[in-house]
Amino acid sequence: MSKGPFLLWIGALTLIMATPWQGWAEKPFEWVPAQPEAVGISSEKLRALSAELAKRQTKAFLVVRHDKLIWEWYSPDHGPDKKHYTASLAKAIVGGMALAIALDDGYLRLDDPVSRYVPQWRTDPRKSKITIRHLGSHTSGLDDSRPNEEAPWKDAFWRRELPPRDPFTIARDVTPLLFDPGERFQYSNPGIAMLTYAVAAAMRNAPNNNIRDLLRDRIYRPIGLKDDEWSIGYGQTFHVDGLPLIAAWGGANFTARATARIGRLVLHRGRWEGRQIISENSIAAVCQSAGLPGDCGMGWWTNAGKRFSFLPVDAVWGAGAGDQILLVIPSLDLVVVRYGGDLGPQAPSQENVGRYLFQPLMQVITPEDPAQSGTAGPYPPSPVIKSLSWAAANEVVRLARGSDNWPITWGDDDRLYTAYGDGWGFEPGVARKLSLGLAVVTGFPPRITGQNIRAPTLEQYGDGAKGKKASGLLMVDGTLYALVRNAGNSQLAYSRDHGATWTWAPWKFTTSFGCPTFLNFGPNYAGARDGYVYIYSPDADDAYSAADQMVLARVPKGSILEPSAYEYFVRLDSDQKPVWSRNVADRGPVFRHPGHCWRSGITYNPALKRYMWFHVYPKQTRGDGAPGARGCGVYDAPEPWGPWTTAFHTEEWDMDPGESGCFPAKWMDQTGKNMWLVFSGEDSFSVRRVDITVHKSGDGPK
C-alpha cells in the first residue's frame, strides 16, 4: 500500500490526493483519487473556489464525490495527518452519532421525556416536558451560554471545573428555561450537554455508557479512523450522578479525512463497505429535520426548511465556530470538509458559509452532470427500481382530445372510473364543454375504450380556476368518491350508484389540500394496506401554486365523510413510524421538493411492494423570464409515508406530461415491471407504457 501522497501543484496551492491506509475497518476502505471532471465537477471552478477559500483563513478543504477524492488542499501549516479543532461541529459528529448508537440499541427514543433519565427534572412543570427531540434540535427552551458572557453561570459552563461546578450540573440545575419546549428555536450548548447526559443515563445499565468508548468501538474504528486521528470532549470525563459524561457541544479534534469518513457514513445511511454500522433509521432520525422550529436534526443542521435556497433540500451539515464544516448532500453524492478560521467578518457565520462555501460549491458542478441537470432527483436513488424505460412517442395512445385532468380509480365492476376537465370527454363528446365530467374506461392498452357518463349532480362548468375539477377518484366498498379542487380549497363528493347521482359533502378542506388526490390500490380498494384511506396534496390552498412540500391525511375508510375523523401526517418518529395529529395545523411534509410540488397521482404496485408516486412539475421559468418546459418524476417507497426514493426525475421530459398523471393499478402486470401511465399531455387521455428494470438482489444503491 502506498504511503506517499500524490501531489498536484496548482500555482502556490498544494492539491494532495488520497493517502489510503490500513484502518480498523474489517474491509478497509480507501479513497480513490480522480479528476473532478470524471465526476461532473469543473476543475477550473473548483481551483478558483479553493484559491478563494485559501484567502479566507482555510486550513483544509476536501471534496469527495461518488466515493472519489477529487480535491484535497491544506495550508502550509496543516496537513492530512494533523487534527484540527471542530468546535460545534462536534454536536453532529460526536453528539449526534452517540445518540444514533443509543437509538439503534433501543435505549431511548426521540420523543421520550428527558425527565425519564434525569430525575431532577421530574417535578419541574416546564423542564419535565422537554424531550430528547427538543434537546437535539435546539428547541428545548434552555438558554445558551457563550464564553465570557456576563452571567456567572455562563462563564462557569466553559471553565469545565470539577463537580458540582461542572458544565453538566450547570446545564441540569442552573440553566434557565426561556420558553416552553418546542415553542421556538434557541441555539443551546447546555441543551446539547443535557442530550449527552440523557444518552449516558439511558444507557446506565449498558455494558459501556462512556460515549468516547462507544464511538470508538461502534463507529470510528469500524469506518477506518485511527485512534490518533481524533479526540473528543476536551480530553475530559466528568463523573456526575454516577455517569461518565463527555462533552459533545465542542472540544473535539479530527483530521479532515476522519471527518470526511463520518460524512461518508451519513451519505450511505449508516452502511460501510457492505456492513450496516448504524441502522438507516437511526441515521435518518439524527440527520433529518426534527419537524420543529429551525428544521434542525439532532446536532445536525438540515436544509429541510430551505435555509439555503441554492442547496438541495436533502443537504445536511455540521458546523462549528470558525466555520468548521462537514457538508453531506445525498442527492449529489457529495461530501465536503472545510477547516480554518472565520470565512468572513461581521456577518453571521451561517451567512458567510452560504456565501463563500455552499453557493460556490453548487456552481462547480457542471451543467451536463446528471445530478445537476435533474436526473438525480431530490431523493436518493431507489433501492428497488434501477431504471424506467418509456415507450416511444409514436406508441402513445391518445383519446378524448381537447380534455385534460384524468384522475383514475378501479371500480368494483372492473371498469376504470376517470374524470376530465376543460373539455368534452371521450368521442363523440358532450355537447357543451365541461369543467368536470365523468367517464369510464374499459380494455387494456393499447386497445382501450372510453365512454362518458352523464352525471348532472357532479358536472361543472367554467374554464381553468373558474370551474371545479376532480383531482382524485377512489372507489371503496362500492362507493365512488371524488376530491374536487377549485372549491375553496377542495371538497368531497360521493356516489353510491356508480356515478349516476352525486352528493356533495357539506364541508371543505380550508387549510392546505388545494389539489388533493387519493392513494389507489386494487379494484374497489382491494389489497389496501389497512383500513385507512390516504389523501395527498401539495401544501397549498389552490391547485395552481407550486409548493415546497406535499402533505398527507388519512381517514378510516368508513368515515371519509366525517371531517373530525381525519388525521394529518406530522413526521416520522425515531423508529420511522408516522406521527399523526387531528389538527391540520400540525401537518408536516411527507415529501419535499422545493418549487416542484404540484399535481400528482399515487398507486400501490403490489408485485414490487412499492408505492409509485407520479409528480408533474410546474413549468420552470427560463433565464429570459419566459415559461420553460415541464418536467416530471416517479418516486417510490415501501410505505405511504416513505422513505421516498427516486425512480425517475427530469426537468424536461421528452414530451409534454400535461398537468397530471398516475399509474392505474389495473394496468400493472403480475411482475409489477410493466405499467402504463395515464397523463394529460396534449390535452388528451394519453397512455404511455413504462418498463421497469429492478436491481438484482444486493445490487441496489447503498
Structural overview:
This protein is α+β, with helices and mostly antiparallel strands and 702 residues long. Among the domains are: 86 residues; 310 residues, Tachylectin-2, Chain A, CATH 2.115.10. Helix content is 16%, strand content 30%. The strands form nine sheets. Strands 27, 28, 29, 30, 31, 32, 33, 34, 35 and 36 form a ten-stranded mixed β-sheet that branches. Strand 1 and strand 2 form a beta hairpin.
CATH topology of the domain at 385-694: Tachylectin-2, Chain A
- What summary fits the major beta sheet? 10 strands, mixed
User: Distance between termini?
Assistant: 26 Å
CATH architectural designation of the domain at 385-694: 5 Propeller
> Structural class of the secondary structure composition?
alpha+beta
Helical stretch count?
11
What's the shape? globular
Count the beta strands: 39
Oligomer: single chain
Domain Beta-lactamase-related: 55-338
Protein name: Beta-lactamase class C and other penicillin binding protein
Pfam families: Beta-lactamase, DUF4185
Domain DUF4185: 489-655
